Amino acid sequence: MVMGVVAPVVIASVVYFFTSGNSFEISKNRDKDNLIYEPHPLTGQKCENYNKRPFAVMLAADPVARPLASISMADVVVEMPVVKDSINRLMALYVCSEPEEIGSVRSARHDFIPLAAGFDAIYAHWGGSSFALKDLDKGIIDNIDALINPNEAFYRKQGIPMPHDGFTSYERLKKTTEYLGYRLENNFEGYKYIDGQSRKEDGATTLVINYPYPHSVSYIYNKDTNTYLRWRGGSPELDKLTGNQVRTNVIVVIKTTSRRLNADYNDVDITGSGEALVFQNGEVVPARWEKEEALSAKLKFVNEGGEEITFVRGKMWLNYIDYGTQVIWGEKKL
């Protein structure tokens, strides 16, 4: 392991980490000297929580719930259709950032549980589908359920219509994890990382993922910052807490198959293997995704030669799509 970097600084209410020329806000409200920072395996970014497990929080994607609180501060976000050809849902992982408010928190879906387990995350949700709760009742993953609300981990905000009024915070989740006796130390082995480098040549800048409206997604590459600004339903994806537009260093489009279990729920193939597209440094790289059947198996990405992909350090969005969903990079359909 690389030796830690000691930062003799005092942190008041807010800290900023700089990656590829960008500042990412991290909520703090503590004074500490001589903090030790090392890269967290989830993102490759140095942070104080380098050896801690992430929290994987289920978030709404419904237009009425937008903008989401602290979505720009998530280290990794998984986006997936939960009703075929209709509704998406998000799972946001937080570890290097410690937001004071996260939401709106929504229900568990069984397809997300193996992904959370693969990241060694603690799964936070507001109830769940019958399929998800059946799995969670078996104790297959450390989870915090708002319907039980241990240690007051979640709360409702006045003035917001149900079911979009559910929120939590990093501190509440952390204290509840300690209260429940869950392990705090991270076991996720992580990915290989490298510092980002902006594309020198002109080229495509817009990525479009044609989820059904109003869940259609696009990203616009910013060469100056070597990041991708996110848009949803034709509007900028903003953070309710900070007012910032969501930006990410890496986007992975994961192609798979799904089917409706009934009128309300989807079943997505998240184990096995399939095609993927990796967007970073203003370029697109064809890849394959792999995840073994074991619940805690890591979600892997390999290039055409079978070697594990090396990612740019920083934030990552994983967009699951069905084969046949249109993906456009510039003017080219992928």
From TrEMBL:
Protein origin, superkingdom: Bacteria
Pfam hit, one: DUF3048_C
Residues of the DUF3048 domain: 42-182, 210-317
Identification of the protein by name: DUF3048 domain-containing protein
